[in-house]
Amino acid sequence: MALGTSPARPRPQSRILMRMDTEHGQSKPIGRFAPTPSGRMHLGNIYASLLAWLSIRSANGTLLLRIEDLDERTRSGPWTSLLLDDFRWLGLYWEGEPVFQHDREELYRNAVERLTAAGLTYPCFCTRAELHAASAPHASDGTPVYAGTCRNLTPAEVAARSAVRPPATRLRVPVCESPEGTISFTDRVFGRQRQTLALDCGDFLIRRSDGVFAYQLAVVVDDAAMGVNEIVRGCDLLSSTPRQIYLQRLLGYDEPRYGHIPLLLAPDGRRLAKRDHDLDMGELRQRFGTAEHLLGWVAHLAGITPDDKPRSAEELVAFFSWDKLREHHENIVIRRASL
To answer: Which residue, 95, 156, 194, 250, is most buried by CB atoms nearer than 10 A?
Structure first.
């Protein structure tokens, strides 16, 4: 049901908003790199970027580059320049000019306004400490399942709390009994997935209290506006995909095809992360010497090639298949001694 329908009738919670035109057609695979310039790329970023690149190139598709720098803290320092240089050194080229999220805030604002006009959002005053102290369980990604504390505040209560601190904005999800609140999709690696939003995440943030638009909203709006129809990323984001699909349905966007790949883990079980300086590109470029040596080793690690022979990104295209990734879907432990 589109906007403008008589408010006397109940509104379904999917595809109630008018469709936004996209910048590109959907006739061929269109993927994207979407790095956050919060530090130097590490081995896990290279691994995920290579698989995203190989998937698109093996299908003669288009690959775009988006720099996810919504948070002002990611806009300082040399990281964006280093990201671009590292991609070029690896031979992982992309089409067109890089897109920067900080230039696209009007798109996110418009999406929030559309959702709010449809009665699907509300202000939330819960602090991070309050959320983590709640008795509600946590989703598989560690996010507390929101208990709906601020869902039914009166206008007077909203005004009083707003005078103390600015609110975040949450998106309402359907009640458990509603079929629209259960999201199913088929992942290219992990198969059929099913999540009931009210049980598994609850109402979720689309804008933080500091005004920064939430990842779940921004990535959905950007992918739709850029025409992205194939998303390859780490399986740590598998549980957030139903939230993004729900937003896509509300906003009238097409749903991309998802492929979530296993993670690279340190021996202690933690995910490789920039903040821990795990095998960053500075160290890797020095250790491997050439992009071909590094890419050949990473491709073998992923199960794409039968050996770790040095190969360029272009040479690896012939080896890529999703069947191989499905066969090697367990997380991979990285030990420095194996490099």
So the answer is: 250
> Are 74 and 38 spatial neighbours (Cβ–Cβ below 8 Å)?
yes
Q: Tell me whether residue 118 is exposed, middle or buried, using C-beta atoms within 10 angstroms of its C-beta: 0 to 12, 13 to 18, 19 or more.
A: middle
Contact 292, 312 (CB under 8 A): yes
Query: CA neighbours within 13 Å on the CB side: how many for 298?
Result: 28
Q: Are 309 and 105 in contact (CB under 8 A)?
A: no
- State how far the Cα of 299 lies from the Cα of 179, in Å rounded to an integer: 41
Positive or negative torsion for Cα 202, 203, 207, 208: negative
What's the pTM value of the predicted model, to 2 decimals? Answer: 0.88
Residue-level pLDDT at 141: 64
Distance separating alpha carbons of residues 328 and 188, to the nearest angstrom: 12
277 SS3 class: coil
Q: From its phi and psi, is residue 47 left (phi > 0), alpha (psi between -120 and 50) or beta?
A: alpha
Give residue 128's pLDDT band: very low, low, confident or very high (50, 70, 90). confident
What integer best gives the mean pLDDT of the chain?
A: 87
Confidence of residue 72 (pLDDT cuts 50, 70, 90): confident
Cα Rg of the chain, angstroms: 21
Per the rule left: phi > 0, alpha: psi between -120 and 50, beta: everything else, 187 is: beta
What are the angstrom distances between the C-alpha of 247 and each of 113, 161, 217, 221, 238?
13, 27, 7, 9, 15
Tokens of 72: 């002002």
Tell me the sheet residues that pair with 154.
none
Residue positions counted in the chain: 339
Q: Are 230 and 255 in contact (CB under 8 A)?
A: no
Mean pLDDT across 80-85 = 94
Predicted pLDDT of residue 9: 27
Mean pLDDT of 82-86: 95
264 membership: H or E segment, kind and range = strand 264-265
